[in-house]
Write a structure and sequence with these properties.
about 120 residues, mainly beta, 5-stranded antiparallel sheet
Amino acid sequence: NAYDNNGKYLPILLSNMIKIQNTNFTINYDITGNNKLLDANMDSQTKSLVLSMSASSNGTLSISIPRLLLDSNLYPDTHFIVLVDKKEVNFTENVALTTRTLIIPFEYGAETMEIITPQRI
């Protein structure tokens, strides 16, 4: 997490925005390389965010997810599960009061990314 000299929390600012289909949310993201985030959809049945992408090289997606859009209903916070092309990947996360920012690596040719939140049954 980033803090200024007075210990005040500084949110991570990401420069790009994408509208989440079927919601009123727009989320911020950055993607490295000459890669593109094409589409974002909320799957309300599986409580997951599904991203379509075009990866012409290995890269990293940093995405800031509002807790009101996608969050765990478990306490303390549980980690999201992230799948790239249906395979689970490791990622880093910065947790703030209203957002969770994920930094997710992906490889050349990746087409879909799914961010799943564990829920209490």
